[in-house]
Amino acid sequence: MRIVIVGGVAAGMSAASRARRLNPDAQIVVFERGETISYGACGLPYVISGEVATFGDLIARTPSQMRARGIGVRLGHEVTGVDPRAATITVTDHGSGRSTTEPYDRLLLATGVSPVRPDWARTPLGGVHVLRDIPDGEALDASLRGARRACVIGGGYIGLELAEALHARGLSVVLLEKGPEVAGRMLDTGLQAQVRAELERHSVDVRCGVTVQGLTGQDRVTGVQTDHGLVRADVVIVAVGVKPNVTLAQAAGARLGKSGAVAVNARQETSVPSVYSAGDNTETVHRVTRRRVHIPLGLTANRMGRIAGVNMAGGDARFPGVVGTGIFRTFGLGVARTGLTQADADALGLNALSVDVTSTDHAGYHRSSRPIHVRLTGERGTGRLLGAQLLGHNPLSVKRVDVVAALLGERATAQDLFDADLAYAPPFSSVWDVLLVAADRLHREL
Ligand code: FAD
Question: Which end of the chain is less enclosed by CB atoms within 10 A, N or C?
């Protein structure tokens, strides 16, 4: 059996490793158009900030390590076509420029996403960047040398992480966001303002409701033209969203979902026999709403890849879906969410209610305790938990979102959360942890 994988990062390499383990006889080949496999893109902002020493530290496995495990890796090889009837792909070798045809018995598309580049961002000007992979990070890092002013465009989690990183590098930072607030898709209104306040506390100039019209400069960028005037900048980072890489899936005739990502079943099979899809380019099911969603995140990509690897190798594994859990840090604030926000629930027509509790992340009498805010959302009538949003001034404190995430997967109620036997000691939590206080209040109000 020949298993061919397109894309050699989270989903692709998880699939390759799993398939290798389960089927020692299969021939497994990974085609990657870039020059690196198996790295943690999530760590890129922290190399920029200096918290991670080098880009090389983000690499988990090298091609030679994978080859030693019997997994073929072809770097600089772009897959440009799929013929499902002949069960072949067309591959272009960037080095030689030659194209060849390669057969497969099982094919995995693990092609990820690409950063959205509005027309004004498609420019030859130096100093304009996106951040998706290690070469992007290296280019940005080089661009920062000698720069004084940075403009980050986009107030999603990558933009917010970068605002902190650039500040840490000594630049003055302006953050532009088209919507009314930063972190707009992650949090409810009100909570978003706390994120903005944290940025402003660290001298980031946050401007919301601003539309970018173009960039200024001759060879190198000097500013960002907006509908609210010119923002001067030596470096511009465009972080306005991503779009799934689905060209190959379309070429294969695979169905896309409403989100624009590849539609798959729980075995990660596309609508085309023997063609699988996993990772950021792929839709999944939201376990709270039962709807199909596209939420491109690291654990999801790794897990989808693992499931695809099992199934391609002849096993049977199913991806259970996600509950929309996300977390990030900007300066001294940890931000996390899982499930639905109140706004999400309202948009779906659910009869939802939210409660807010502000407390300390561990015993208030303990010197290192910091404020933490929890918003819990539940469904009237059923008492079902729908979601949680957390903001913590000790960033690690919001990792307790995982408790709610685990319960959401089980369709638990607010009472179930209140009944949870959580760990307690003064350096870690209060005896009645803020989650339990919020669950009790939500249960009573529902
Ligand atoms: P990718 O990592 O995009 O890999 C796809 C690969 O396919 C690429 O290397 C690409 O070159 C290759 N490819 C595409 N088309 C072809 C082709 N035709 N031929 C050959 N090769 C091809 N997620 C989190 O959960 N938490 C975080 O904190 C977090 N932080 C992030 C920070 C940044 C700056 C970025 C960029 C991402 C972050 N993510 C985070 C997202 C996470 O990195 C992704 O979910 C994960 O990398 C997805 O893995 P993937 O394998 O699906 O896709």
Answer: N
Name the helix (H) or strand (E) containing 251: helix 247-252
Residue 351 alpha carbon to ligand 1 centre in Å: 36
Retrieve residue 10's tokens: 């989270």
- Asked whether 231 and 257 are in contact (CB, 8 A), the reply is no
113-119 contact pairs (CB < 8 A, 24+): 113/242, 113/243, 113/244, 113/245, 113/280, 113/281, 113/296, 114/242, 114/243, 114/245, 115/238, 115/239, 115/240, 115/241, 115/242, 116/240, 116/241, 116/242, 116/243, 117/238, 118/212, 118/238, 118/240
Q: Coil, strand, or helix at residue 145?
A: coil
7 CA to centre of ligand 1 in angstroms: 9
The answer to the question of residue 321 being in a domain is: no
What is the C-alpha to C-alpha distance for residues 327 and 278, in angstroms, rounded to an integer? 22
Task: Kindly state the helix (H) or strand (E) to which residue 137 belongs, with its residue range.
Answer: helix 134-144
334 lines ligand 1 (CB under 6 A): no
The pLDDT of residue 27 is: 98
Does 427 lie in the same domain as 344?
Answer: yes
* 419: CATH: 3.50.50.60
How many domains does the chain divide into? 3
Question: Over the stretch 109-139, which tens digit does the pLDDT of each residue have?
Answer: 999 999 999 999 999 999 999 999 999 999 9
Residue that is written with structure tokens 């890849």 in the block? 305
208 given a catalytic annotation? no
pLDDT digits (tens, 9 = 90+) for 3-31: 999 999 999 999 999 999 999 999 999 99
Q: Indicate whether residue 58 lines ligand 1 (CB < 6 A).
A: no
Boundary (domain end) residue, out of 238, 269, 294? 238
Mean pLDDT of 174-200: 96
